[in-house]
Structures are given as structure tokens and as C-alpha cells.
Amino acid sequence: MAIMTKAQAKNFAEMDDFMLELCDFLKSKSVIDATTHRSILLKGFSRMVDCLQEKKVISAREAKEAMDKGFTSLVYALAK
Amino acid sequence: MYGWAGQRLRVDLSTGTITKEPLSYEYRRKWIGGRGFNSDIIYNEVPANLDPFDPKARVCFGVGPVSGTAAPSTGRVTVTCKSPLTGGFGDSNMGGHWGAELKYAGYDQIVVQGRAKHPVYIWVDDDKVEIRDARHLWGKFPREADQMIKEELGDEDIHIVLIGPAGENMVRFACTFNDVWRAAGRTGHGGVIGSKNLKGIAVRGSGTVKIANPKAMMDVCNRLRQTFKPDPMKIGLYEFGSLCLINVANRDGWFPWRNFQGGAHPLANNMSGETHAKTVLKHREGCFACPICCGRFTHIKEGKWAGEEFGGPEYEHAVPTGPRVGIIEDANDIWHNARLTNDYGMDGIETGGVISAAMEWYEKGLITTKETGGLELEWGNAEVVDKLIPMIATRKGFGAILAEGADRASDKLGLGDKGHYYTLTTRGMTLPGDDPRGLGFGYGLSFAMGTRGGCDHLRSLCCLELSGALYPGLNTKILGDERPNKPVTTVGKPYMVFYEENQKATTDCLQVCCFTTHWSYAVLTPDQVEYLNAVTGLDFTEEEFQEIGERVYNLERAYWARQMSGAREDVVPERFTTEPMPQGVDFQTNVGVVFPLSEMLKKYYKYREYEPGTGFPGERKLKQLGLDYVAKDLAPLRSKYLSESEKKKKKYYY
Predict the structure, then answer these.
(1) Residue contact B550–A42, C-beta within 8 A
(2) pTM for this structure?
């Protein structure tokens, strides 16, 4: 499910430090709530990927790819 | 109760009162132990304006719920006080066996307050606690006093915390040892202990730690011990101790040559772990339940110092009174200086920091032999360093000025801004021997933000950038990106520092060694939560666990805020941000690099929810962390910090 545009994905992919802004973006789109936002910041990227997979925002294959290739892969998956 | 002993021992040396205070479930759950318990006591019981040497000041020794268990390296103890060096929050932690012994004696924490009429030591023998005469121990080196107490009490297996002569003389960077050689080096609590006329604390414990789920505990401990075997950092630390970093530091240009004028030197290998192992290593030593055994024991075989022996050195112990003061040709001079700072009981980092600052003042003509009492402070003058270390510890001659620490010494000599340029401090404490222009930009950011001033590897070192490349996929798992494992980049560093500071704080609340977790990566945060729950029988989640680290960090930051220290003090020495790294060796990787602090600082503030103007922890964050009372304390101070009169003040220490 696309929750951002390709241009937004490109913008995230070019960021030096993306974690907080991506969490804020996911919260603004109601993909995650405040509790999950906090949980991701405390636990790290793997928590974000797990959460997006649990919510079926990304597929199992996309989740695996995100863990292998990192956040750039994830944000482009979020733009599909 | 499982895990915790469930009580705090409080000793008032003015009145001789000894009390045992129960620690409630809510309290233990909020702070876990060790650094958390200590930070809470210091925040609540030591006011911002109190002189750290006032009898009312506290010094705390804290252990955690897994201390004394079979989890990896559970012998650590945090020592906390209001720092006489910085005037702000101060803590430091040490390995050894004392922490586990304290737990077996039935205590999670000791708080010492007051001042004895004459030198004393505390003897904790399970339930029985005595304050004993130590007049005969005053002036003794820790290794001498340790033996004398053991003979006096007729027990070789006692574990003892001790200060040396520097602590007795209230040198502002005196430290504390246990098991003779394991030091809690930083922030000067040895001086606070000395100001209380306390020589040490001997402990004998015959109890045990109750484990809620022994099978689960053994399963996780066995599993983790297997993961250590092939761990690359574990192997390096075992083989060569923390001196294994010397050649890495030299290659990547973070070797602090002459007070960070340079970052590499052709002779660095003279003092590498590899050379040390071939020439002066007598044996390796491990702390309680440690699967790594990074401890060294050194025996100097040749030259002027032949026959000298001591426990150590660590990288951070050898580098400051070695290359930082320009000594590199004969490593025996470096080992000798480490032995001296051990015996006199001083933080090797600040000792080297203040001597190297003085050498640079001398080089630049800010001081002459008139101020130094005839000492010629040329770089690499090993003879003068050998003289100065005892002079500092005993506050004799020029040593009395240096005993105040680098920033205060600069002020006492009236050197103004020029003097402070060369002190290389953050919030009044000298930075350790690692140049952020090479070791990493995350590391440099954590220098600026450390809650005890210029910090070192035990506080907020971002190992994801130091050793992350040895663990493919780990940076992605935590940060979502492998690029932050490159030291000289800003990519991913603000989040890295936020994450690592929380992680280090919880590790210090458990009181396990950070070399076992997020240095080597054999133990990750979920593993720590697993053994914490197996020991306590509770149901900590990873989020709750990391949130405790965040709570501790914010409380410590608030302690500084209460002293009017905030955004304006979030800096690193100008040398790192303005002087491009020069070339020291052909293979150096960071020539020309400067450290870009401001690029990362703004983003880091957002993770922490610090107010942009003051840099104080925000009210919403404090309330979220259950620190409503701290939010109330800070409310009236926010506008004061932003007032014109405060802005005009130059604050190097408090």
C-alpha cells in the first residue's frame, strides 16, 4: 500500500538521519500511533519494519529486503 | 524478592549512624539499580549549590539486580557524587569483584555522607557494619592499604574499595579502586571520599542472589557465553587488552599526539597491545563472571623502571600520560606513568590532560619556568612527568595548581581564553584520548552531550561506528543503514547517539560491563532484558528497559540544568571544530578532517526533546518519563538561563 509518493521516498532516501522524520511521517499518516512511535525510537529500525509488516503496510518480502538493504529500500516500498 | 538485595546501606560518618533502608518495588522498577539508584540520590539529596567537599555531600556506590549472577561480567559498580572537578553531576564505574561481594553481603547500594573526625574505613561483614580507625592507612597506596586491611581482618578474600594519597589530598580528579587495580577513574569522587576522611570500604558477603527462574537464567547465560567465543572484539580485547586499539587509532587518526595537535605517530606501535603482550605482559586478568578478560598485569623488565609491576594499563590509562604529553619512544616510561597514577589514585585521563595542557601553555609561551617552579615542560620530557605526578597527588609546588584540573588551573594561572583553548575539556572535564576527527562524529557529538562532562568509552561511545563494520547488518538492524559505521560521517549519528546513550545507561543500571554489550556485540539489548527477567521474575519489555535509560539520562541532564548548564555548554573544544587534522603517518585515513558538531546537534536535540533555546529537557518529556518533580524544578530556571546576565557568564566548571 502506497503511503508516500516517489518524490517523498526520494527525499527520505537522501536524508542524513531519517529515523525521527520517518516516524513522524508514519504517525501523521496514522500508520502508527504515539506509543508505537515511541517504541520504534527506543528499539530501533527492526521494530519499525516489524510494525509495518504486522500492519500489512509492507509484505514479508519487502520487510526482509528492508532488513537486508536498509531504510532506502523501505521508503521506496512505502511508495509502491 | 529475586535479583535485588532490596536494601540500601546508609553510613553517616559525622554521627556514626548506620541505617538500612528498604527499596520498594516501584523504586526498583523505575531505576533498576546501580547508576539509576545513584543518580536519583544525587539529584534529590545534593543541591546544586553545595560544595562537593561539604560534609553534607553524598557519595554513592551502586550495584544492580543481576550483579553477582552468572550473566556476563556482573561485577561492576558505579560511584556517583557531585563532581569536585566539574561541579556538576559526576559518576564513574569500575570492574573487579567488589560489586558482586556487596550484593552477597545483602545491599544494592551504599550511600556515604558526613565527615569522620579522623581517617576511617567502613567494614561491611554481611549484616554487621562497622566504622573502623584508618589513621594507620592514611598516606598508603591502595595496594598497601588493601593488604593491611586484609591482614587486620584476617581474611584474604575480602574485596575493598580504596582511595590513594590523591584522594586524601582532595585532588579534584582523584579516583577510586577496588581489588587494588580496578579503577572508577573519572569525575573526582576519590577527592569527595577523601574529604569525608574515608579511606575505603571493605566488604565480605556470605549470601547469594536469589534467581526467580534458574533454568531460564542458565539457558541464556550458556547461550551468550557461546556467542562470545568467535566475537571479534572479544578476541582483540582478550589478546591485547584495550591497547588493541592503539594501531587502529593510529591508522584512523584518533591517537592523541601532543594534546591532540596530531592524530597519528610513526612510533605508535611501541605502545600497542601487540608490543605490550610481547614485552611486558605478565598475565591477563578478568573481572567477576567475565567472558572477555581484557585486564592486563604488567611487569617492566628493562631500563630505568625495571621491576615495577601493576594492574593495567588500559588504552585510556596509557595514552594520556604517554603520547598526549609527547612520550612515545620508550613505552616503559608510559607504563611507569600509569603505575604512578594508579598508586597515587588519580584519574589518568585528567592527569595527562592537565599536564598536556600545561605543556602546550609552556610551548605557546603562556607560562614559563617562573610559574612551573623551574620545571621545563617540553613535550616528551618523561623526567618532568615522573616528577609532576607525585607533586599533583600531594599538592606540592606547581602540582598544587594542576591538582585543580585543567580548567581551574588555567584560571588560577590567569591565562584567560587562550589558556582554555588548550585545556580540551567539556563541562570542566578533560576529554579522553580519542580524537573525534578520527574516532567518529557520533563520538564527538556524545562528547558535547555527555551528562558527566567530557566522557569516555564507558558512557556514550558509539560502538556502532567504532566496531560496527565488524558486525555486518547490525547498523541496519538498529539504525536502518550501514553507512553510520563509517566514523567520519554525520550520516545517522544523531539517532545513533540517542540510542547508544540510552543503551549505556541501562547497562550501567544493570551494572554489567559495556565491553560485553555494544562494544563487542555478543550481548544485545533483548538478551539483557531476557536475563534481567530470568533473575527478577518480572516482565520488563525492551521498550521499558530502554526508557529507563532515557529517564536516567534526562535526570542527569536536569542536574546540570539546575546549575545553569545547557545549550551554550553543549560544545567540544575548538581545536576539533577549527583545526584540520594534520598528517602523522602515510597510511592515516583522516587527514584534513574537522569535526562538524553543529550539523548534528539540532537533530539530536529533537530526539531528546531538549528545548532549542535552553537545551534543558522539555517538560513533556520529563512528565512522560515520570519525572514531574524535575519538570517543576526546572520551570523557573528556563527563563533565568536565557537572561542576559547568564548569557554573559563564561562557564567552564561549576
Answers:
(1) yes
(2) 0.97
